[in-house]
Structures are given as C-alpha cells and as structure tokens.
C-alpha cells in the first residue's frame, strides 16, 4: 500500500540528507623533462595530471588499456605517443619515466696530460732540429768562406825624413838618436765573392837592431767583395835613443846605408751571416830594406822582397 508523501515529508527529507560536497578543483604538477640524451635545450615543463578520485587513477583495476592510451595522448613533447612512428617511441621504466642513457667521458685526465707532454716534446724536438740544421748550414757556409783570405802586397816606402846623430835622452845620458818620417803604400785585395771584409792592422813598425825607430797604424775600414784598395800609412819616430845599438850606426852627415826591417800584421774579418758566421784572417808581413839618407827616391818592393805568413 502506497502512501503519498506530503510536502512536509519531502522538506524534512531534504533537510535531513547530507549536503553535497563541492566539486573538487583539479591541480597539475609540472616536472622538468629528464631527457638529457636528446640534447633538448628547451626549458618547457611537462604536465602531470592529478586525478580527482581513485577510480580515475591508473592504478585502479578498471583503468584499462584504452584509458592508458587516451591519458598518454594528452602529453606533449617527447612524452607524447606517436602510433605512426615506432622508431621515435621511447622506452619507459616501471614508474612511467623515460629511460636516459648515461653520458660517458671521451677520455681521462691522464690522456690529457699525455697529450700535453707529447705536444711539449714535439715543440722541443722541433726547436732542437732547427738549431741542429742551422748549425750544420752555418758550418758549411763557414767552410766555404774560409779559403777567401785578403791578399796583402807592400808596394813602396818613401823616406821623407831620416836623420841619425848624437844626442841625449830625457835623463841626460848621451847616445845616438834617430828621427824618422816616411810613408808606406800597401795594396789589399778582397777575393771573397759572398761578403766584404773589415780590415785593420797591428802597429806597423820600422825596426833598427830590434829597436822600434818609427811606427804607424792602419785605420780600420770596410772593403767590399772582389775589390782592390791601395792604402798609405805614415810612419813617424822623433829622436829615438839607440844606446848600445847605435854603436855601429853611420851618422847622416857622413852618409851611408842603414839596414832596417818593416814588420806588421794585417787583420781582416768578414761577416758572412751577420755576426753569427764570421771568418777572421791574420797575415804577418816582414820586409827587410836599406835606407840611405843621401837618396830621396822611394824604395820599391818586389814580389819576393817581403815574406807573407
């Protein structure tokens, strides 16, 4: 038997029934992509849904294959499933995260140290090879330039003044004394084809019985390759005391010949490769001669009159 419910009953039932809970808000938690192997530099965040009830959770038994597919289709980026491209599908682990391959280092620090050491050894080896080659090259050039020696020839000696007489030295000791003033002509030839030479000389001495009665010196100069040059050097001596050596000397007022010796050394130096490769030669010259104060003609020297060592 059915009873009709009055309005008061409906009202009381509505008042007694519990109030409905408001609709829950849906929140999304964003997590960064851990796919570092693909080199994706974008900083986009992937969305992970939060379900309102256990029924909507993927762990519920009623959550089927269709639900997984439809849920996975809501993801974007590298997590999105592409049914048409099987090659781009990424494998996931048990928790649903994509697997990442480990980045391996190409080499160890020991290999870098070995590379640096080998590079230093190569630089040192190259530098030593360059020095060795340059040394060999310099020795070859030096050996080729060594035979080119300056040729020296004494041409003549002009006696401008030659006087032998009695006198006394600074202490008042009486002795024979000589005054000399003459000029010497020398010819120098540079046969080198590759370099010029710098020429100078030791003191050019005019000697009487081992006593230097006149002296002069060749000023240093530069002579180009394959060239001749004639030089004039003045020899001078003023009242040189002879002491015991002048016992046999003939005085100028009586006339007579006086034996003398001309002695000097010519020095030539050539810079083949700057100052790195140089050649240096010395030539000793000795010329015996006889001076007569009564004659004023120049004394000429033949080729065999002097010795050249």
TrEMBL record:
InterPro entries xref list: NHL41-like
Bias kind Low complexity: ranges: 70-85
UniProt superkingdom: Eukaryota
Spans traversing the lipid bilayer: 123-145
Keyword Transmembrane: yes
Ranges for region Disordered: 1-94
Record key words, sorted: Membrane, Transmembrane, Transmembrane helix
Protein's UniProt name: Late embryogenesis abundant protein LEA-2 subgroup domain-containing protein
């Amino acid at each position: 038997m059915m009873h009709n419910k009055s309005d008061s009953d409906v009202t009381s039932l509505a008042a007694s029934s519990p109030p409905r809970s408001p609709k829950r808000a849906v929140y999304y938690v964003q997590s960064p992509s851990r796919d570092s192997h693909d080199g994706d530099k974008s900083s986009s965040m992937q969305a992970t849904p939060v379900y309102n009830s256990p029924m909507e959770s993927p762990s519920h038994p009623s959550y089927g294959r269709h639900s997984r597919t439809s849920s996975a289709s809501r993801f974007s980026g590298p997590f999105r499933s592409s049914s048409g491209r099987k090659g781009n599908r990424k494998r996931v682990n048990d928790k649903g995260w994509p697997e990442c391959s480990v980045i391996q280092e190409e080499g160890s620090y020991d290999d870098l140290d070995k590379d640096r050491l080998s590079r230093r050894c190569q630089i040192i080896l190259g530098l030593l090879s360059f020095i060795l080659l340059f040394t060999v090259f310099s020795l070859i050039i030096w050996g080729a330039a060594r035979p080119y020696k300056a040729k020296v020839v004494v041409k003549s000696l002009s006696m401008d003044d030659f006087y032998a007489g009695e006198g006394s030295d600074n202490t008042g000791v009486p002795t024979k004394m000589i005054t000399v003033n003459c000029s010497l002509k020398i010819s120098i030839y540079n046969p080198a084809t590759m370099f010029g030479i710098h020429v100078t000389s030791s003191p050019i001495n005019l000697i009487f019985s081992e006593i230097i009665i006149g002296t002069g010196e060749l000023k240093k100069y530069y002579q180009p390759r394959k060239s001749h040059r004639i030089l004039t050097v003045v020899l001078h001596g003023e009242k040189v005391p002879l002491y015991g050596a002048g016992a046999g000397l003939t005085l100028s007022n009586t006339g007579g010949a006086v034996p003398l010796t001309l002695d000097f050394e010519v020095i030539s130096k050539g810079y083949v490769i700057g100052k790195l490769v140089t050649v240096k030669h010395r030539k000793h010259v000795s010329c015996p001669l006889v001076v007569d104060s009564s004659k004023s003609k120049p004394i000429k020297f033949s080729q065999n009159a002097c010795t050249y060592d």
